[in-house]
Design brief:
This protein is of the alpha+beta class and 661 residues long. The protein is built from 16 helices and 29 strands. It is elongated, with a radius of gyration of 30 Å. The two termini are 46 Å apart.
Length: 661
Amino acid sequence: MRLGRIVLLAAGLAAAASGQNIRKLEDYIQREMRDHELPAVSICLVEGDQIVWSKGFGFADPEKKIPATADTVHRIGSVSKLFTDLAVMQMVERGELELDAPVQRYIPEFRPKNPFGRPITLRHLMSHRAGLVREPPVGHYFDAKTPSLAETVLSLNETELIYEPGTQTKYSNAGIAVVGYVVERVAKEPFARYLKRAVITPIGLRDSAFEPEPALVSRLAKAEMWARHRPPFPAPTFELGMAPAGSMYSTVNDLGRFLIALFQPKSLVQPATLEQMWTPQFAPAGQKTGFGIGFAIGSFEGRRRIGHGGAIYGFATELAGLPDEKLGVAVVATKDATNDSTRRIANEALRILLAAQKPQPAPERWSNLIGEYGWDFNILYVYEKAGKLTTLIEWFFEYPLEELGPNRFRYPKGGLYDSEPVTFTPEGVRVGGVLFPKRPAPAQPGATFRITPKRPVDELRLEVAGLQPPVEKGQFRQPELVELTRLDPGIKLDIRYASANNFLGAALYTQARAFLQRPAAEALVRAHQWLKSKGYGLMVFDGYRPWSVTKMFWEATPEPLRIFVANPDQGSRHNRGCAVDLTLYDLKTGRPVEMPGGYDEMSERSYPEYPGGTSLQRWHRDLLRQAMEDQGFTVYEYEWWHFDYRDWRQYPILNVPFEKL
């Protein structure tokens, strides 16, 4: 299912809006759609001031087979609240409203029963601290009569506050209806018309409104309801009396433009105003989660996350932003109560956007702390992630640490090691009362990994001289090995096996050259050209490898390490000219970049999914993988540097030395 319009501006991203990562996100969305029978999903990704990718999946009208797109109109439910609250904050900036004044100043007739004596303010209402009931008696979520906003708000006079204002978080649609009515009264203009003029149009939203404009309703997706004991049925479309809390129409592309406006705030409100909205209200100093003014504030992989979810008959919406990174996503699904799906999709998209941003180098003071601690049966990994020194403990539990001083940290509140101290010493790291001993690194950064060969290399060289590779049955392509540097001189070589600078400590090749079968070589050149636009090039350690060298590797390597060398009885993909070992180099310096582990290092640090090292090292590793996999290569599961070309099965095992090519 690949339906709908695609908008793609890949130049804005290092890796996210291209090939592998977008395919991964598409697969994720389609899996969610299959698993939860979603008729349609629309999504938009934002970086800085650009929509970098948006698309629709499934059908906006399943019966008529009209595809969903990023411009399909949806009802966005409670995401509407953010627009209402921003209208208030604009008025606050102009001095027309005060956040902490009793709301009766603006609506004198608003008089719910308040046994606590403390007056309700706009700040209480917008941060869900007013103590009001969730739904008003009139104009509520279940009221299909569509009363006016005034009737909705004044019906709250029949209710009594549940909590004293300011003391408890209690989510209230009714509260935001009151906020919207304040806007209407102060602006002396109907709420929907004022929001269109003051908030929606100025930031360039073309397909959004708080009322059912005919041009929007004609493009509204057909949404679906479901219940435990009845088949799916069409979602009702009546308007809510509490429109400011949940009745906005929009598209994911417009929600993307809204995120862009939040990241460039002068077009909406002043940056200081947004910071206030993104600060948890009525919370202890330093608390980083909860309701701000309108926005739900949380964290995502160590970063501040702002946004809101939305649910209205048949529609589920998730709007999420990482404002410090200026990354955001909007997702809508057309099936009732599927917010878990839209939230999961949004989080997966944020991971991809984060992966595209080049991280800053880790602080030098952590360089000697990063590594592995503990025992073979239970390893504690210490690494840098999102600017935090982070641990993976007991194999599954990841926690960022709070830095207290030199070599002193603390686990966060909650989790397995709630607030326990973490102290690094020359012997290892002490977690609470337990010392995890420092594990020796297989090779220091930049050093060559070495083993003690099971048999001398010179002896093996003589032994393999008369051997032939295994005979295979089948039809194979005619080999056409081409030299990589002749196709593109910008590809650098570091052919370790032509010197003693390799894991065996002996030269295996007589020439420092690299060859691949022509289709693989041309694909490699394309990867190299793409990387040049990112400031990197490819440095090749090895390409085609004669079978006799693979045989020597196997016989020299101890059994526990043989996952890192190919079995000569089956031949190697290197022997077929369809595998390459390589890394990235920086175009500015000409030097190879740092990866979490070294080339030919026979340890877990070589695994493509190894969690350790620094964010920048892992980002370089993933960028290399992105470039290669987009051109038809697949990474070997135990070696971040080893890539096999997709056509390797179509070529025979070869044992031709370089000097005869």
